[in-house]
UniProtKB/TrEMBL annotation, chains A, B:
<dbReference type="Pfam" id="PF04051">
    <property type="entry name" value="TRAPP"/>
</dbReference>
<dbReference type="InterPro" id="IPR007194">
    <property type="entry name" value="TRAPP_component"/>
</dbReference>
<dbReference type="GO" id="GO:0005783">
    <property type="term" value="C:endoplasmic reticulum"/>
</dbReference>
<dbReference type="InterPro" id="IPR037992">
    <property type="entry name" value="TRAPPC6/Trs33"/>
</dbReference>
<dbReference type="GO" id="GO:0030008">
    <property type="term" value="C:TRAPP complex"/>
</dbReference>
<comment type="similarity">
    <text>Belongs to the TRAPP small subunits family. BET3 subfamily.</text>
</comment>
<protein>
    <submittedName>
        <fullName>Trafficking protein particle complex subunit 6A isoform X1</fullName>
    </submittedName>
</protein>
<dbReference type="GO" id="GO:0006888">
    <property type="term" value="P:endoplasmic reticulum to Golgi vesicle-mediated transport"/>
</dbReference>
<dbReference type="GO" id="GO:0005802">
    <property type="term" value="C:trans-Golgi network"/>
</dbReference>
<dbReference type="GO" id="GO:0005801">
    <property type="term" value="C:cis-Golgi network"/>
</dbReference>
<dbReference type="InterPro" id="IPR024096">
    <property type="entry name" value="NO_sig/Golgi_transp_ligand-bd"/>
</dbReference>
Amino acid sequence: MRVRSAGRGGAPGARGPGMADTALFEFLLTEMVAELWARDRDPDPGPRGQKTSLSALEGMGFRVGQALGERLPRELPAFREELDALKFLCKDLWAALFQKQMDSLRTNHQGTYVLQDNSFPLLVRMASGVQYVDEAPKFLAFPCGLLRGALSTLGIRSLVTASVTTLPACKFQVVIQKS
Amino acid sequence: MRVRSAGRGGAPGARGPGMADTALFEFLLTEMVAELWARDRDPDPGPRGQKTSLSALEGMGFRVGQALGERLPRELPAFREELDALKFLCKDLWAALFQKQMDSLRTNHQGTYVLQDNSFPLLVRMASGVQYVDEAPKFLAFPCGLLRGALSTLGIRSLVTASVTTLPACKFQVVIQKS
């Protein structure tokens, strides 16, 4: 017995009704965070610790951000200014990843940018109790790396950190590294 | 300075041109596999080994498959037969994840199904050299779990294994567990 084969771009709705890809990405990232944390809780976790898990997640985010960034410039107008690149992250990159845009972008015009998301999807699930603020950093390391990686592909070196005051809102601070 | 805020469903093209979500999923999964393997290469990897990484990836796939499965039945007609569920995996689930469908589905009508993908996206990158066939299992553990998890949500208990003979083709064997 064979299922009728259909190539790419087959029947309408073939992408699967209701299976938003953003959900897939979030499920996968949540599992990844859980797995790395479980390994850190091992009785004998080896020479790596929790700090290394954060740094591993940041590194994974960086490489995914780079890879995504490499797919973009061919199809987009060049970024004439640093600010254009940051706006691109806030609008297009965020929308592609999380189906929403950043809520605000502020800059001191000296190479520091603050990107605020009032309802960051990876934190929304955690927002039921303020006691979980301590858990937030492990969900923010990957997106920090992602922003840094995408900027890197656009030719901009940066440091990216995140902070949470009230769940599920968070701020990403991007400090451009002048070479 | 503020970027004009735009809610969900904002400007046309806001999802990010060319950033197929399938790429995001593949990048993330590739990074996850690499990170788990790097940990297993640690001089002191702790009590977990490579076999445990395969089983961890299968488990992550299972939970993601369950979570995806839970989003589906409300929007889809009920699956009257086991075969309907398998067809659904081959068409809709695969299309949602990999932008393509399985190339064939065969069954012995006794609870065993063989799902063949002639060009499985996670293996395409590896297809340049037959020497990498040994590397294939680590990219197949997650999708095996995913199939098992999605079936589980549809009320079907199964064992799912994968095999590769010629990259980038692979077969997933699903054996239904009658309770």
